[in-house]
């Protein structure tokens, strides 16, 4: 049954991406705001499709901790492809740090180029400089930078492994860093095909004030993400059982 429901959702995902993306593309190419509306609508259709076809509900907690009407830095755990979609449903004006390979994706690549900050993960120091410059422009425009501080998807029980990119942004942007814990990997693991029934929770945690030293910030981020993620994963497993 899970295989059949996952197959139906795959059809839903790609068909809705093609229809919504192609219809909105003529305007989205020229307007970031319109591209954002299209992606936000697409994200809502995915949450609905997961609920309808796979028995997966989506909950967001702690919205009061999100930046309102201004810039911010959001450090999100990363367990699933869904992590790149769902935040458009609850973050006011997101700008994603994303790998440049996504720009080559059919349809989605056009939107990624409008709403994201592409980086070359093999580019070393040059990548960091370009990422920082683009992030500063985004913050000046009042956007909330979303970054996966671990750099890539992890299994649900993996402790946070904080990479240098988030530390650089925190030090240079001088805005609060908002951690986000989640348990998406229990229902949609990595880039896998199966979608297991359950309850996905994104929990926005209290912001970390700017100004901490590297070690203190890294520890504060781990201390926020690890126990919250562990709690959400345990909660999700209990619901699935």
SSE topology sketch:
Elements (H helix, E strand, L loop, with lengths): L1 H27 L3 H23 L1 E6 L10 E5 L17 E6 L8 H8 E4 L4 H17 L3 E4 L16 H10 L3 E6 L15 E7 L9 H27 L1
Parallel strand pairs: 1-7, 2-5, 2-6, 3-4, 3-5
Antiparallel strand pairs: 6-7
Explain this structure to me?
The chain is of the alpha/beta class. The protein has a single domain (57-240), classed as Glycerol-3-phosphate (1)-acyltransferase (3-Layer(aba) Sandwich). The chain is 46% helix and 16% strand. The chain has helices at residues 2-28, 32-54, 108-115, 124-140, 164-173, 214-240; strands at residues 56-61, 72-76, 94-99, 116-119, 144-147, 177-182, 198-204. Strands 1-7-6-2-5-3-4 form a seven-stranded mixed β-sheet.
Can you tell me the CATH superfamily? Glycerol-3-phosphate (1)-acyltransferase
Structural class by helix and strand composition = alpha/beta
Which parts are unreliable, with pLDDT below 50 for 5 consecutive residues or more?
none
Radius of gyration in whole Å, from Cα? 17 Å
Major beta sheet, strand line-up: 1-7-6-2-5-3-4
Keywords:
46% helix, alpha/beta, single chain
Compact overview of the structure:
The protein has 241 residues and is of the alpha/beta class. The chain has helices at 2-28, 32-54, 108-115, 124-140, 164-173, 214-240; strands at residues 56-61, 72-76, 94-99, 116-119, 144-147, 177-182, 198-204. Strands 1-7-6-2-5-3-4 form a 7-stranded mixed beta sheet.
